[in-house]
Amino acid sequence: MSQLGVPELLIIALVLVLLFGAKKLPEMARGVGRSLRIFKSETAKLRDDDDETAHTVQAQAAQPQPQPVQPQQIPAPQPTLSAEEQARQLEEQAARLRAGAAAQADKRD
């Protein structure tokens, strides 16, 4: 393929003028220029993102690997209590909470 010379460029320009009109060509050229600027900025962002990803991967490879987490020991289950025993324990806890709340109210007064 040979490169475009001056005569070929003039023919292309003449065809564009005939197709779109002389008034529309500057507007189209601005639109193409904006599109190219946007395209260039987006490709630059993609390259920057790729560089950041490569640096992140290298930094992660340089860091020591974390030790595996040891499983926690689960305490042995307490023996099940009857409903009466559970009710008694709950009443004792409620009484302690009421006493604590009363003591705090006395301190505020």
UniProtKB/TrEMBL annotation:
Q: Where in the cell is it found?
A: Cell membrane
Query: What ranges does the record list as Low complexity composition bias?
Result: 96-109
- What does the record give under GO molecular function? protein transmembrane transporter activity
Assembly and binders = The Tat system comprises two distinct complexes: a TatABC complex, containing multiple copies of TatA, TatB and TatC subunits, and a separate TatA complex, containing only TatA subunits. Substrates initially bind to the TatABC complex, which probably triggers association of the separate TatA complex to form the active translocon.
Output the NCBIfam families linked to this UniProt entry.
PRK00575.1, tatAE
Spans of biased composition, class Pro residues? 65-78
Q: What is this protein called?
A: Sec-independent protein translocase protein TatA
Under PANTHER family, the record lists: SEC-INDEPENDENT PROTEIN TRANSLOCASE PROTEIN TATA
* Claim: Repeat is one of the keywords in the record: no
Question: Which ranges are annotated Basic and acidic residues under compositional bias?
Answer: 85-95
Q: What does this protein do?
A: Part of the twin-arginine translocation (Tat) system that transports large folded proteins containing a characteristic twin-arginine motif in their signal peptide across membranes. TatA could form the protein-conducting channel of the Tat system.
Instruction: Provide one Gene Ontology biological process annotation.
Output: protein transport by the Tat complex
Q: Where is this region: Disordered?
A: 46-109
By which gene is this protein encoded?
tatA
The entry assigns this protein to a family as follows:
Belongs to the TatA/E family.
The cross-references to InterPro entries, in alphabetical order and at most eight, read:
TatA/B/E (IPR003369), TatA/E (IPR006312)
**What Pfam families does the database record attribute to this sequence?**
TatA_B_E
Topology of this chain in the membrane: Single-pass membrane protein
Question: Which UniProt key words apply to this protein?
Answer: Cell membrane, Membrane, Protein transport, Translocation, Transmembrane, Transmembrane helix, Transport
Q: What is its main location?
A: membrane
